[in-house]
Amino acid sequence: MKAAAPDTFQDRFAAAMAAVGAPWPGAVGVSGGGDSVALMLLLADWAKAGKHPAPVVLTVDHGLLPNSHKEAERVRKLAEAFELKAHVLVWKGAKPSADIEAEARHARYALMGGWCAEHEVTALYVGHTEEDQAETFLLRLGRGSGLDGLSAMKPVSPLPIPGHAQIRLVRPLLNFSKAELRDFLRSRKVEWSDDPMNSDSRFARARLRAAWPQLENLGLLPSRIADAARHLARARTVLEDMTQGYLQRGTRPGEGGALALDPLRLKMLPREVGLRALAAALSKVSGEEYRPRFDSLERLFDSILGGSLGGGATLHGCIVAPASTGGQVFGSATVTVSREPPRKVKEPAAAQRRKS
């Protein structure tokens, strides 16, 4: 039997919360813009209806504009008007002169993630919308991203800040448009303010937003692009499941955080899955957050499968080599991935002469 459609906007949001698993207690990042203010109110309604603790509002004074502290204070007062606790987090220190968007995003997540970790809040909710999903897809397409990049933002993911991966980053508005969120705010007679940086042509996302009318004339609607990202996300999930299946059955932990790999089982995988599995093994051993360069990964993968690894190779902070006799848990073809020891920094010649 088909489920009945939600009766109200809040019902639709409750369905979205159920779809993301509603991790709680939660904090909500609020910039003062329409998307995040709408999310703040929707979360407050949802928590009250379900008799959950109210969300905590976090806003960041980024210091990138002269009036940033005033906007942060406005958000705090707005939250308190709805009887929500709010905290202003200040981004201190020198500000970047390049790659400002990425640096500001990292600073916001670091500040809010640190607050959540300190106060044992398990989830940080952010107001990314359908348009944000579509913009992310197009920006990553322009950078030549592969499947993982083009499948864009997940509804729930680890906070992308080292040391805070235990905090869930939750995006319950990915199926909501900016227009309907603003209609919701108008129905509640709540004002919002848009960050001037959102229309600053120095930033790629702002330039893309200015181009939406032309894109829509070509049939490239945000909803259709977001749908394409969701289709790719389903494909990514299948590949990730297959990759985890190999890691469970085709690897064994060794001493000092090393991993033993079964190259025969690796060879039986589809190439895309095999490359993902090798990359995951390298990252697990090295502790590196990002994957190795794809061309280097392919060369290593082919040398393992082709039996041309020889005495071994290094990649991504790891040594990949045939296993010793005692470590051949998958037979004589076993390959071991171990962490590469730190390289000694060669002293300048002048310093060596002073010691002699």
Describe the structure.
It is a single chain. The longest helix has 28 residues, at 222-249. The chain has 356 residues and is an alpha/beta fold. The chain has helices at 9-20, 34-49, 68-81, 100-118, 130-142, 147-150, 178-187, 204-210, 212-217, 222-249, 263-268, 271-286, 294-305, 349-355, and strands at residues 26-29, 56-61, 86-90, 123-125, 156-158, 168-170, 251-253, 259-261, 313-315, 318-322, 335-339. The chain contains 14 helices and 11 strands. β7 and β8 form a beta hairpin. The protein folds into 2 domains: 9-228, HUPs (Rossmann fold, 3-Layer(aba) Sandwich); 250-339. The radius of gyration is 24 Å and the shape is elongated. The strands form 2 sheets. Strands 3-2-1-4-6-5 form a 6-stranded mixed β-sheet, sandwiched between helices. The chain has a 5-stranded antiparallel β-sheet with strand order 7-8-11-10-9. α5 packs across α10 (222-249) and α10 (222-249) packs across α12.
